[in-house]
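Q: Structure tokens for this one, please.
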Amino acid sequence: MKRCRGFRSRRGTIGVETAIVMIAFVVVASAVAYVIINMGFYAAQKSKETIGRGVDSASSSLELDGSVVGKVDSTGSYIEYLIIPVRLSVGKSQVDLDGNATMVSVYSDGFTLPDIYQGVDLTFDESTETDLTSVITGAEGAMAVIFNDDNDTILELNEKAFIVIRLDTSIHTLESYDTVKVEIKTGTCAALAVVRQIPTGLVANDYVDLG
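A: Here is the predicted structure, written as tokens:
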């Protein structure tokens, strides 16, 4: 009988040891599963961020908000001013149109102006001034005017901006049948490209709807 009790005692000890080993395996397996799940969540989050950055870089933060308008010079031969209305694209909350954050380039058959943007005209009073071309007089270049703004360079929701471009018609000419491309690049997003063809029948100092 003593021998039988000793055997049962050893068998009980072995059973406890087996249980401890199994518990250890379960704990280790749980820890490994936790690490794997966390790595999966981390990878998914990083993938989401990468996709988000890709979408931002592939889409423009601005979109057209109306027709592009050209103003004919005093000779009736060339387009002297281009006026491009823009607003925030869907999903964007704000865009800085400061001269250090935005680039405006103009391309045509006979010339290229890689960056002529000078910033936002904060002195323009939309309640009293109606001629947008007045923001650039004399010098060739581009400036922005923001309507319904809070007197800063940030284009926000419910605000509208006009990019006004003046060309020196003695050097850079846009005449009938010419094609012009304007690129507006803000931050890390893709540029807004605006391509238009100049129509026929230009009249001196007249405004032309370029579509």
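A few notes: The helical segments are 2-58. The longest strand covers residues 79-88.
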